[in-house]
Amino acid sequence: MSRYFSIPVFALTTILAGCGRSDRPQTTSTSAGANTPVVSGSSSANDSAGETPVAAAPVTYERAESMYGAGNYAEASQLFTAYTESHPENPWGHYMLGLAAWKSGERDRAITAFDRSLQLDPTHRKSLYNSGRVLLEMRRSQEALERIQKALAQDPLSNEGLRLLGRTQYQLGKVDDAIQAYQQALGADDRDVWLMNNLGLIYIEQDRALEALPPLARAVQIRSNAPVFQNNLGVALERSGYPVAAAEAYEAAIAVDSTYQKAAVALARVTAGGQQPEPEPVDLSTLAQQFQSEIEGWREPVPANDSMVPVSDSAVPLSDSAVPVSDSITAGQEKPE
Q: Which of 87, 165, 187, 241 is the most buried (most CB within 10 A)?
């Protein structure tokens, strides 16, 4: 049986965020030796002369991981393929192959790699979560839900898991369950601004713009230099009947990113023909603080409900046209962890 190779503590925090050192194999040497994987190179001229060919450089976990960290995902995928062939019983190798394949646009191959990792270690939460992300991109929402729930069974208050649960429930058309999952996730991490942004987007897309104001106001309060949050706050303000405040939010987005076309178009729309002062200006600071106070009530574990059990086969996923995403708003970006 091949021995496990480690995941060293690199700057690749987005890949292994949330995993303690006890979740990884122990570090081993990467120098060439009896246990170092060697990938044969192509035949050289020495072969025909009867001489022993020179072996290609060994493929180590660290080498493949560094290629992934540099953003060379296609090459990382090739290297992790070679690594897993030499170390077929290391679930982390298959997990990283899944990430590299996913980032290279090979979703089916990514699922195969994640599945192999899970065959070796059925409790491998990172493989469960990231295969769930891939399945969501493939609109295989029910399969994604099952994997996310398996991971949450290990850690019911995982911010990452609850965030993904919310996204999955929303894709399945279970709006209330999605909102509840996002709220629970914020209870686990009250400074997750992308959670606040995406919760606000649900309200906007459900024509509940006034309810979108508090989470978006809080997101902007925490990170005022994020043009996406400022733009989305502008959308919520505009749809809530506050065009002057909306213009200020759009202007703030453009001040951070002068190329932000969505905000520029929206600003031109709300300022066309001039603006009159609003009779009752909105107090975004108060809304943000009220939202923070609400989060305090979401910190306690919530009893199991329908959001934590598989959705029946009769559940109808939302089609792309059922919940249109406006060109003016931007959803949070799901990153592998």
A: 165
